[in-house]
Design brief:
Family: Belongs to the CPA3 antiporters (TC 2.A.63) subunit E family.
Membrane topology: Multi-pass membrane protein
Number of strands: 5
GO molecular function: monoatomic cation transmembrane transporter activity
Keywords: Cell membrane, Membrane, Transmembrane, Transmembrane helix
Helix content: 40-55%
Number of helices: 5
Protein name: Multisubunit sodium/proton antiporter MrpE subunit
Number of domains: 2
Oligomer: single chain
Length: 189
């Protein structure tokens, strides 16, 4: 798919998303609501620089199911760890801001990673540098450099899972590792 078709598809995706939000806000689907929503979408594109939604060219169902199961496991484990520390010594839980250099350049993958990280107890996205694909995560409990590295590795594992599941033109992924060819591969899980 060439760049022009990709941008047009991305703009169409954003337009459909905006129209869906418009209809949900009104709470009904009728001709007036849809026509009004289309007018709002066209005006929004005319007066602003709305981003395009990068196209997902393929979803791999098995890696996506695996990513969902591993997310559920991560959610359970992080909930137990945070609950244990909150009950054991609530005043002594230490956290840290951890920088994670993401390998993906895709906004879809980075959005999925940041959402996944923020939904887990004990981690929260506090900053994102889109230009450098650099995430700043608040993690807890983090009492040592080893625990900070473990939290960083957890975010990178989540990113690898999602890069394997979602095929996006922005990311040149090797199917065997999920890594970008221009980035040295990290240690596998």
């Amino acid at each position: 798919m060439n760049g022009l078709a990709r941008r047009a598809g991305g703009r169409l995706g954003m337009g459909v998303w905006l129209l869906a939000v418009w209809v949900l806000l009104w709470g009904r689907i009728d001709a007036a609501t849809v026509i009004g929503g289309l007018a709002v979408v066209l005006v929004a594109y005319a007066v602003s620089r709305l981003p395009t939604v990068p196209l997902v060219t393929r979803v791999r169902p098995v890696p996506l199911a695996k990513a969902a199961l591993e997310f559920a496991w991560d959610l359970l484990v992080s909930s137990v760890v945070i609950a244990w520390h909150a009950l054991r010594a609530p005043g002594r839980i230490q956290g840290a801001i951890i920088e994670v250099g993401a390998r993906s350049r895709s906004e879809v993958v980075l959005l999925a990673v940041t959402t996944s990280v923020s939904l887990r107890p004990g981690t929260l996205l506090v900053g994102l540098d889109w230009e450098r694909s650099l995430l700043r995560i608040h993690g807890m409990p983090v009492r040592s450099e080893e625990e900070a590295d473990a939290a960083r590795d957890g975010v990178l594992r989540t990113e690898r899972r999602l890069m394997r599941a979602l095929v996006i033109p922005d990311d040149d992924i090797r199917p065997d590792t999920g890594a970008r060819p221009d980035v040295p591969p990290a240690e596998e899980e």
